Amino acid sequence: xxxxxxxxxxxxxxxxxxxxxxxxxxxxxxxxxxxxxxxxxxxxxxxxxxxxxxxxxxxxxxxxxxxxxxxxxxxxxxxxxxxxxxxxxxxxxxxxxxxxxxxxxxxxxxxxxxxxxxxxxxxxxxxxxxxxxxxxxxxxxxxxxxxxxxxxxxxxxxxxxxxxxxxxxxxxxxxxxxxxxxxxxxxxxxxxxxxxxxxxxxxxxxxxxxxxxxxxxxxxxxxxxxxxxxxxxxxxxxxxxxxxxxxxxxxxxxxxxxxxxxxxxxxxxxxxxxxxxxxxxxxxxxxxxxxxxxxxxxxxxxxxxxxxxxxxxxxxxxxxxxxxxxxxxxxxxxxxxxxxxxxxxxxxxxxxxxxxxxxxxxxxxxxxxxxxxxxxxxxxxxxxxxxxxxxxxxxxxxxxxxxxxxxxxxxxxxxxxxxxxxxxxxxxxxxxxxxxxxxxxxxxxxxxxxxxxxxxxxxxx
Length: 461
Description:
The protein is an all-alpha fold.
């Protein structure tokens, strides 16, 4: 067996064991998943980025500290390892949707249709479209659409005007970045929802939805307004024929179907939404693949299963760093919360309690601020979402905490030059990530952050 196939086999066993545990509550299956997860991590030698290695080292150091300081280290570390396995399973489940998407004519037609819209409509359509595609493709939408933008934004398309070409590049890349960053907010099966709901079992997605969807609308409108007022607005080409948005409408229907499938599974099996997503995403991916291969007989299902088996190493191998970063962050957050003695936080509570709901704004800004110095938002959100509810601050409800942290995560993706999303855009454009985050996006952040602070500080919900 090749090393790649061995890694994928371990990862699938982790996924299977974790799903059985989540469905049936068997601790034995959870233990089996954790053991195989350790084997999987051992196979990743030489495959990880500096950030992933750093988080694993931090997890190792904190494990030793927990063995020394925790009164029940075995239980704490077992539960934390289970969270690592859960997030690994979540990444695998959502990654399955990328397989039919990358081979879909509909996806390519959608991308071309969005990019060829006139300047007055390009920002809202590209921003909304990248948010929708981000739900399925995750960070892959940046690679896909950024490549399409660079290919279509030629000097001849700008009628020989270099300044128009540069302006189009800036405006389209920012629309892409902001739209992608909204995906964790608007998607009920996104990683942000999984982190928050798995840490706050008393909160449901319908309770989060008013906060996060309202914040997403504010971010979208602020981005659109800044794009319009900062321009420029070159004269329109009157002979240009605007392409139809029908492919985008068809994709929206497909996406609604997948989300409806996840909610149906949650309702029928009485599961929490993140667990239902672990079942719904692969099922939706398989049905989508079968539809693409329906002419091959038996509804395309045998061909779809064969395609999944053949493409799994190609599909999941690039996810190793994503799995380690998210899983290790969940592990670190759970262990940190377990080691914190809330009684020792009484002086901090005396300062924070009078602020009430404004603590949600502070939490949002903390996620954004720490991201600027290289602290991954996943780590900050996982830690704060476990810690803040234990303080019992008046007015600071669990759903408000979760929503503010998710919005901080989205803003961090739009601003920090050290996030993967910013580094990808920098690679395609040749523009330094600091310039994209602070110069290109600076006016948007100045407009959006006060609006969001008002939204959470004086929320109507």
